[in-house]
């Protein structure tokens, strides 16, 4: 039977964290662009497409975190019946959820995200497409966001506001930005955060 040294949980958490951060980067570099290509078959305006994908990312994290919160409450109630340690009940619940990913009904979150996007006033006009066309991206983001909640501390994204002051420590500028502008016209991708610190920069378009 494997023995767990006191340092082992920390190493496991660090390894898991590194994989999730790498996955976030891959989604940004590849799967986001694949989703853009799918949307551009229906919408010719690049800004609109990028806004839609940003909203999809934000809504995916929101839906996954809500689902995680509900599951964690249920798991803690179950584990509390015979929990004896040595770790805290909170840590035991996070570990249990991380090992039992089937607890998460990601399809329900995808549907929730699509419904939210259909009603989102920030999308410039009523789309002539079904946002399920980018369900692969939404699903991957939901699964990633859910797994990020099992970390100690959890990883999350920062949600930006159009017109906010451009922060070099938080964002990259898109190539079509006005590099002399000080304010964000719109967001392309959110930054990844940990305890208020930027782990991976997001992307924005700046214009005067």
From TrEMBL:
Keywords, ordered alphabetically: Coiled coil, Cytoplasm, Lipid-binding, Membrane, Mitochondrion, Mitochondrion outer membrane
The cross-references to Pfam families, in alphabetical order and at most eight, read: MIEAP
Q: Which residues form the Mitochondria-eating protein C-terminal domain?
A: 17-206
A biological process term (GO) from this entry = mitophagy by internal vacuole formation
- Give the GO molecular function terms: lipid binding
Of the GO CC terms on this record, one is: mitochondrial matrix
Tell me the PANTHER family matching this sequence: MITOCHONDRIA-EATING PROTEIN (PTHR21771:SF0), MITOCHONDRIA-EATING PROTEIN-RELATED (PTHR21771)
What family does the entry list? Answer: Belongs to the MIEAP family.
* Identification of the protein by name: Mitochondria-eating protein
Q: Which organism is it from?
A: Edolisoma coerulescens
């Amino acid at each position: 039977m494997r023995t767990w040294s006191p340092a082992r949980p920390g190493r496991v958490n660090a390894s898991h964290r590194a994989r999730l951060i790498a996955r976030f980067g891959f989604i940004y570099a590849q799967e986001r662009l694949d989703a853009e290509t799918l949307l551009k078959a229906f919408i010719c305006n690049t800004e609109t497409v990028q806004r839609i994908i940003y909203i999809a990312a934000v809504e995916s994290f929101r839906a996954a975190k809500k689902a995680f919160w509900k599951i964690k409450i249920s798991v803690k109630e179950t584990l509390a019946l015979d929990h004896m340690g040595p770790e805290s009940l909170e840590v035991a619940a996070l570990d249990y959820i991380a090992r039992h990913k089937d607890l998460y009904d990601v399809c329900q979150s995808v549907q929730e995200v699509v419904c939210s996007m259909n009603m989102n006033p920030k999308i410039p006009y009523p789309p002539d497409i079904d946002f399920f066309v980018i369900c692969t991206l939404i699903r991957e983001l939901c699964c990633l966001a859910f797994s990020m909640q099992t970390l100690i501390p959890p990883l999350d994204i920062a949600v930006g506001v159009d017109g906010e002051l451009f922060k070099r420590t938080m964002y990259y500028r898109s190539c079509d930005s006005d590099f002399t502008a000080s304010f964000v016209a719109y967001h392309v991708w959110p930054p990844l955060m940990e305890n208020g610190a930027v782990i991976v920069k997001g992307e924005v378009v700046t214009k005067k």
